[in-house]
Amino acid sequence: GGTGGDPPSIQPSRCTHVRGSTRCTCPAGFTISGRDNNLCTDMDECRVFPPGRLCVHGCTNSPGSFRCFCPAGYHLAADGSSCTDVDECEHGSHTCGAEHLCVNTFGGFQCVTVGCPNRRNATYIRTTPTRCERNPCLQGDQSCLQAPNSISFQFLSVVSNVSTPRVLFRVSAARVLGDTLRFALVGGRSHGCFSLQRSGRQTGTLLLVVPVRGPSTLEAEVEMSELEGPALLGRYVTKVTLFVSAFDF
Asked: Whose C-alpha in 71, 154, 155, 163 is 20 to 30 A from the C-alpha of 30?
């Protein structure tokens, strides 16, 4: 039976008698039952319909109806069946400390730390929350000049099994001093999941090329090099971290 304001799971049908015959009907969400069609039994829509048909995530049956629900990190959308991601970083409901950067993901968030590297041949200073720039090199210090001029950090999020190929990120030069720009994937633990394509003279595009089931974290490192003939004028590295959600919505 129902609780609170819900109707009972089994209730009498509504019957009309016309010219010696009886016709019984049930309200929406119930099916006719009983020996003389005199009962209405709740239809469990959550079992009758295949998963995903009524609700994007979860379905709870109720007498005469059903209710959809979403996992933690989402709220039920206005349509009553879809789930909308909650941006914990924007709403301040995350638990990241002051030394961390909050990155919203589908169904959650990540607390990340951006640290500038300390290399033997070069030192770096953080100029924005996600960018480190090389301190000036001593004159003639070729080892320092070969180190990246800047190291940037990009944190991205996609749903599980997202359709591919999918553009994730574009890196470009605001101004070009040399005669050649080169773009390359130079590192990362997930090299086979990504592709880097040239899109115009000054832009390289990072794509996800294979669907990835979450939860998972992928990493890629994109390098843009500026040259004048064979001489290297500068190297600019972007470290990309891609958070793949456990959910496909």
From this structure: 71
In CATH, what number does 10-85 get? 2.10.25.10
Residue 112 tokens, joined: 């990340």
3-state secondary structure of 10: strand
Over the Cα atoms of the chain, what is R_g?
A: 29
Query: Using one digit for the tens of pLDDT, what is the confidence trace for 98-132?
Result: 999 999 999 999 999 999 998 889 999 999 999 99
* Secondary structure (DSSP) of 97-162: -TTSEEEEETTEEEEE-----B-SS-BEEEEETTEEEEPPPPTT-HHHHHS-SEEEEEEEEE-TT-
Q: Where along the chain do its domains lie? A: 10-85, 101-244
- Res 3: pLDDT: 46
E strand or H helix at 91, and its extent? helix 88-91
Domain 101-244 CATH assignment equals 2.60.40.60: yes
